[in-house]
Amino acid sequence: MEQQQNNRGSFSNLGFILAAAGSSIGLGNLWKFPYLTGQNGGGVFVLVYLIIVATIGFTCMLGETAIGKYTKLNPLGAYRKLSKKFAFVGALGIIVPFLIVTYYNIIGGWVLKYIADFIMGKLGVMVGDPAGYFGAFVSSAFSPIFWTLVFVLINFIIIQAGVSEGIEKMSKILMPALFVLLIIVVIRSVTLPGAAAGLEFYLKPDFSKLTMATVSAALGQVFFSLSLGMGAMVAYGSYLPDATNIEKTSTIIPIMDSGAALLAGFAIFPACAAFSVDVGAGPSLIFQTLPTVFNSMPGGVIWAIVFFFLVLFAAITSATSLIECPVSWLIDSKGMKRRTATILVCIVAFLCAIPESLSLGELSGLTFPTFNGAMGIFDFVGYIAENVLMPAAGFFMCIVIGYVWGIDNFEKAVTNNGQFPFRTKAFVTIMIKYVAPIAIFIIWLQSIGIWGLIFK
Ligand code: PHE
């Protein structure tokens, strides 16, 4: 049943790198990385983040891709094939991306709405009261849901075209375009008068700001940004031909992903300093702050449209990758046609987005208790996916590779039975068996609030 590979399509090497980079580079890089950096002390967060990318990030990227390439199955089938007992890890690889996509679509909708506003000449009105403008929009009942639907429809059209034609074609155009557009905005930003203070905040680590919370925020962000711990890379790896050097691809993809995140920081922090914008504005940083920044530039509307289009491109390639996880499971395990599976996932994800979006307005009174305080539906779904389930999936992936599937089998998958050298074998072995699971477990305790209870 699970072996129906003929209708799965396959990737070329470059196609895989572009599609995997497309999955990784998204709202996590352009929207979340800058605001987390701003909230967590600037340069020191960037430093910790990069160290984690090079260690745990690289290791988990290689691990997930290897599992996908070896099993040629969706995450659930893949983990089941490695060990029946650990099939639940694969189930997380279907549930978690689905949960994420429900609110990812909403943020994608916000981006679309802002692009439409810029095009309709509302930048001037917006910057009069950016916080109020953003707040009024997200808390309204109809508008955010309408734009979420538009975002879902765009993704639907792309996905149902199939893996090689849909995602690969799109990545080949959108990824290089993304980097070009980002660099243009960076050049504008770093040449603004007063940019130097922002660069200093961004690049000079202030070690007095280094706390457990900084490390924990950075580790969570590495998982989210690299699309790890949720089966996305297992799904993509399953489309790879055996003769692919995945040690290489697992090096290139995190470098591209971090490059995009770093560029986003270079675009935002110098501009924040130049226009006295609060770096700690949080999740609203892009939506409230950038319009103000762009408005103060000559040709501001153009800059705003260009930048938000760039964010939209990145959000689409990530969202399609998230949707691909449950879709490929429905194709493989339930024998569904790609088109039917995509329609089903898109409709259910959209229906889930409705109460989530309403929870930022009408339904804000409806909250769920957690160790980290009561949360509305929107925050709660994000918390369950990113803070509770995602690190758990990453943790168990290490356990499965290190202790169940075994390093020897893992090595065979990485080297394609000796065809390629495995240069980082010693390093990856220590990471997978010890360092990564322990670090992830600690961050998990921190995220769900138990660490805080123990070390009061
Ligand atoms: N990595 C994507 C981003 O940075 C989000 C994502 C997570 C996409 C998991 C796919 C799977 O926006």
Can you walk through the features of this model?
With 456 residues, the chain is mainly alpha-helical. The protein contains 20 helices and 2 strands. It has a two-stranded antiparallel sheet. α3 packs antiparallel against α13, α5 packs antiparallel against α15 and α17 runs antiparallel to α19. The termini are far apart. The N terminus is likely disordered.
Give the H and E element order. Answer: HHHHHHHHHHHHHHHHEEHHHH
Number of helices: 20
Structural class: mainly alpha
Rg, alpha carbons: 21 Å
The 3D shape can be described as globular
The residue ranges in which pLDDT falls below 50 over 5 or more consecutive positions are 1-7
Q: Give the strand order of the largest sheet, numbering strands 1, 2, ... along the chain.
A: 1-2
User: Percent helix among the residues?
Assistant: over 70%
Mean pLDDT over the residues? 87
What molecules are bound to this protein? phenylalanine
Note the gap between the termini: 51 Å
- Main β sheet profile: 2 strands, antiparallel
SS elements, strand count? 2
Beta-strand residue fraction: under 5%
